Protein: Repressor
Amino acid sequence: MKNSLYDEQLDYDFASWFFGDSMEPAYLNGEVALIKQTGFDYDGAIYAIEWNGQT
Structure:
């Protein structure tokens, strides 16, 4: 897998790491998701949920 470097500021509210293989092949163990809170939801989207202090 290639590493990507960005020289621009990315707009996100928080970051979370993927652990395990439940999201493969789209997202791999150890990758980071940069998450922007929008207030919108729609079918087919991937969501980050916080429950009792865990995501």
